[in-house]
Amino acid sequence: MAFTTRRSLLGRMCEGNDASWREFYETYKPLILLCGGDMRLTPDEKDELVSRVMCEIFRKDIVGKFDPDKIPDGVVFKCEPGKGRFRHFMRGIIRNQALAIIRQRQPHGSLDVPGAPDPVAEKQWEDDWEREWQHHLYIEALKELKLRVDAKTYSAFELYAVQGRKPAEVAQFLELSVASVYTAKSRCIDIIKSIIEELKEQ
Amino acid sequence: MTMTHYTREDLEFYRSRQMPLLRRMICASHLKGCPDCARLLRELEEDDRTINDIRSSVELYQNLSDSAPAVPTGK
Fold this sequence. Notes:
Shape of chain B: elongated
Number of strands of chain A: 0
Oligomer: heterodimer
Structural class of chain A: mainly alpha
Strand content of chain B: under 5%
Number of helices of chain B: 3
Number of strands of chain B: 0
Largest sheet of chain A: none
Order of helices and strands of chain A: HHHHHHHHH
Shape of chain A: elongated
Distance between the termini of chain A: 13 Å
Helix content of chain A: over 70%
Number of helices of chain A: 9
Largest sheet of chain B: none
């Protein structure tokens, strides 16, 4: 399940496993890019933001602070219920690094751009972050769903719900009844909701 | 008299108009007087919203990966 997967990933990262860092990079890069877009960074600046955030995580050994070996089974990163520690770290690092990029493009490190919308407004950032994090959770939940259901159930869900194909078409393709396609959808939605709740605790 | 409730699958057929007309009319009448089945129907509508959110996220991430440069090697 997700907890085990993440725990394992972070554990391997702590050991300096290159493939794990790559997996981490692939998982969080889209989130960072989207946040950079919300803060109105240019494409080059967004790429710089990804590099800065990854370097910062490595430099500060933030992953290491979770010390996966000391976390009991079934409990991962749980600091305060509903207030994920890792999420909190990521949010802070992305925000700080984006602000640093904005500062370096302004004379004397100013964050003010005359006539431009305020890219650093805290309230706006909160809303943007929540939205981007929700996207991230859905993507992670889909990955996790794939591990928790059989291949046919996942395919039925993906084709019908995610890709928006007609239930009869999906049923014929997968050699199922239309009712089974609907059953697969309902089951997968329930599991996704449950995964999202688990991920929110991290 | 035992009241027969509709399953999620039945209600999917009902709301997607795949149910025969007569059965549809009976189902519509039943839904007016059965809070359990009406709740189930609302849950399906709520699932639709979740699905829309998931689709948006998938689309967003697909667009990002389509425009993303290659992943750097090493850390």
